[in-house]
Design brief:
endopeptidase activity; 2-enoyl-CoA Hydratase, Chain A, domain 1; about 20% strand; serine-type peptidase activity; 19 strands; 15 helices; about 500 residues; Peptidase family S41; Pdz3 Domain
């Protein structure tokens, strides 16, 4: 244990030095030849590790794009400048999980503590993006009395449309889906903006509301004692917060359950993220209540759910299945040693690093024997590709599922399976994730050697156990209903309302 104490102390001491070095490197200029080396390095890693690299783009076309990029690299660039040149090519591969990481500035613990005592500039609003326009749809702190529906025309005299066009090229969904970008872009817009412009203390917004232009100056404010007390309260982990997977940053729950009518005929489950945390207990309690109430209808809402745990959706499906089922097909990898390329020690604290060092031999042997070969292909052993029986508390009534362009990854896997098995009626908008699967599961976290940009590569081809559509698009709803910005502002839900009306009609028919 003495050796592990030394590891802990050394790792702690190196933390500040590594932050300083990272920020210096981020500001440095990298010669063109080294940038070209990074492009080649990324492509070699993709070819070795990505199990479906040419799913949506022919090899010849991808190589042409990479060569064209290299020809434009004629002058030194910072890692961030290089990111904005390289990421659009990665996005053209059309694998939604595949993306370079933005080279961000890192902060020391004291800097982070100071920021935590301040209110954000942009995070106090909620946004909506349509085409090249951005709107504020919620003003959480009533800042400057800016009204929902206000369009932001410019930030510090730079047109918002300029940013949107630039940032849109950095985002792709799986395949040729077009619904995903507006949802993901509104969530990532200010991540990109801050990476480019830094953490500003003041910004000027030019806006348009009901035909009138206004200019507002937003300033970063210190949190009051009351605000800081609320922050502490939100961080407390009560049993309810654990069960419903409370998220401090958004002050909301990932999972929620309720009945939508007085006689408990309609049960409603909303899942914002398949995080897995306490999910077993949540579904067990929720479906027990549904069974006890003898509910005839169940609505599952996975709108704006970017995915998450395969284990959780497999468990959820067991409560919806009316016969034995297999959720996914066997998951393909490129080689037998792929499971050992997952950066076991990544993001470990000094203490976690020491503990993981002890456990590493067990991890190594488990991963070494986690693959098998069949018909010349290599597959990773997964519980979700095994035949499962329905849960004893499984719901036998009618199921509706709400989806939209923000339903991605695991959300698309489960909805594609439900649609294929005719176990649910899907209502809303085409999902952001592909109908026929995706490449994710777990990642190899690569780092480009010269720019030091992080490049996580998905290693598993995960596909629902369905008859493939070969559409290269998302899961298409049975009933298409789009939600407008006005609906969101007025807190109307036409997609949920359609389901309620449909149920009311069925009840009248008897």
């Amino acid at each position: 244990m003495k050796n592990y104490s030394i590891i802990f102390i050394l790792a702690t001491l190196s933390s500040c030095a590594s932050i300083k070095r990272h920020n210096e490197q981020r500001a440095s200029y990298i010669p063109p030849e080294q940038l070209k080396e990074d492009v080649d390095y990324a492509y070699v890693k993709l070819q070795k590790m990505h199990p479906q690299l040419y799913w949506y783009i022919p090899k010849q076309k991808l190589e042409h794009k990479l060569d064209s990029l290299k020809q434009t690299l004629t002058e030194p660039l910072t890692p961030l400048q290089f990111y904005f040149r390289f990421q659009p090519v990665i996005a053209d591969i059309r694998e939604g999980h595949l993306s370079l990481r933005i080279p961000r500035k890192k902060f020391t613990k004291s800097e982070i503590k100071k920021l935590e005592q301040q209110k954000g500039l942009f995070s106090r609003f909620e946004y909506y993006i349509s085409d090249d326009q951005m709107y504020i749809i919620q003003n959480n702190d009533s800042i400057e009395n800016i009204q929902p529906g206000t369009e932001i025309l410019s930030i510090n005299n730079v047109p918002v449309s300029t940013y949107i066009k630039k940032y849109r090229s950095l985002i792709s969904s799986d395949g040729y889906n077009t619904t995903f970008q507006p949802y993901f872009l509104k969530d990532l817009f200010f991540n990109y903006y801050t990476a480019e412009n830094g953490l500003e203390n003041k910004v000027t917004l030019e806006t348009l509301y009901k035909g009138e232009k206004h200019t507002y100056t937003l300033a970063r404010e210190s949190k009051s004692e009351n605000d800081l007390e609320k922050d502490k309260e939100m961080k407390k982990r009560t049993q309810e917060k654990k069960l419903n997977d409370y998220v401090v940053s958004s002050n909301s729950y990932n999972r929620s359950f309720k009945f939508l009518d007085k006689d408990s005929t309609i049960a409603y489950i909303k899942v914002k993220s398949f995080s897995r945390e306490y999910s077993d207990e949540f579904y067990k309690k929720s479906f027990s209540k549904i069974k006890k109430a003898k509910s005839a209808y169940l609505i599952i809402d996975v709108r704006n759910n970017y995915g998450g745990s395969l284990y959780e959706i497999n468990n959820l499906y067991s409560y919806l299945a009316d016969k034995p089922f297999t959720l996914i097909k066997p998951s393909q990898v490129t080689s037998r040693d792929i499971p050992l390329r997952t950066n076991y020690f990544r993001k470990s604290t000094p203490l976690e690093f020491a503990l993981k060092s002890i456990a590493y031999p067990s991890y190594f042997f488990a991963q070494a024997f986690s693959t098998y070969k069949k018909e010349g292909k290599v597959f990773y052993k997964m519980k979700a590709d095994k035949l499962m029986k329905p849960n004893k508390e499984a719901f036998n009534g009618k199921v509706f599922v709400l989806i939209n362009g923000g339903s991605f990854s695991a959300s698309s896997i489960i909805t594609a399976k439900l649609k294929n098995d005719k176990r649910a009626t899907l209502v809303g908008e085409e999902t952001g994730g592909a109908n026929d699967g995706t490449v994710a599961g777990f990642y190899s976290y690569q780092k480009l050697p010269n720019s030091e940009i992080r490049f996580p590569i998905g290693l598993l081809l995960v596909q629902p156990n369905i008859e493939f559509s070969d559409s290269k698009k998302g899961v298409v709803p049975d009933v298409s209903i789009k939600e407008s910005m006005e609906d969101i502002i007025d807190k109307k839900d036409p997609q949920l309302d359609w389901i309620k009306n449909e149920i009311a009609k069925e009840k009248i028919k008897g």
